[in-house]
Amino acid sequence: GESVGLHLPTLSVQEGDNSIINCAYSNSASDYFIWYKQESGKGPQFIIDIRSNMDKRQGQRVTVLLNKTVKHLSLQIAATQPGDSAVYFCAEIGGGSYIPTFGRGTSLIVHP
Amino acid sequence: NAGVMQNPRHLVRRRGQEARLRCSPMKGHSHVYWYRQLPEEGLKFMVYLQKENIIDESGMPKERFSAEFPKEGPSILRIQQVVRGDSAAYFCASSPSGGSSEAFFGQGTRLTVV
């Protein structure tokens, strides 16, 4: 069946490094993607989104890349800080569904 | 503009009791989604509602669970006769329109069944 998944469940980086979190999706009809950050004990927080007619979108210290050919999405965080430590989820919408579908998540651990 | 408000933040119920979880969407948002999250896992979709209508409840158990989003007031997720397996974090998200629009989440209600 169609699903959204993440390649790496845990990513450890040093403060100041750049982080890359990956997400694979299998529903080729998905046309909208969102990255969320969830800190311990809190709800998911919207970070950045991208539509399928784009392949790159930049925010403040974050960049999302979309490769529709291989159905791959990535979130790049520049100059990672300890406050970036959290679980990151990608979500996809589309293919006739209005419901954001989430992958399992990647835990980012930033060491000072 | 306040964010999505969920209450209570923590709820403890004994087996067999009823749990009522409330979600007030962001101002101007008429679409509400409920998700369930177990520890170390992702968010599992339960139900999608618009004002006074259930649009999709494919992720919600057929028994004991119900949801509503009345014309006035918050959306309610109701779990009757709770069991230990219902213990989880329940998150609500709202968006101004369905589909390709930003969905914002509340802080969740952590339900513990003892």
Helical content of chain A (DSSP H or I, runs of 4+): under 10%
Number of helices, counting only DSSP H or I runs of 4 residues or more of chain B: 0
Classify the helix fraction of chain B into a percent range: under 10%
- Main sheet record of chain A: 6 strands, mixed
* H/E element order of chain A: EEEEEEEEEEE
- Poorly predicted tracts of residues of chain B: none
Structural class of chain A: mainly beta
Task: Give the distance, in angstroms, between the N- and C-terminal Cα atoms of chain A.
Answer: 41 Å
Query: Span between N and C termini of chain B?
Result: 36 Å
Strand content of chain B: over 45%
Task: Describe the global form of chain A.
Answer: globular
Task: State the total count of DSSP E strands of chain A.
Answer: 11
Q: Mean pLDDT of chain A, rounded to whole units? A: 88
Main beta-sheet strand count, sense and barrel state of chain B: 7 strands, mixed
Number of helical stretches of at least 4 residues of chain A: 0
Of all chain pairs, the largest interface belongs to: A-B, 23 and 25 residues
Rounded to an integer, what's the Rg of chain A over CA atoms? 13 Å
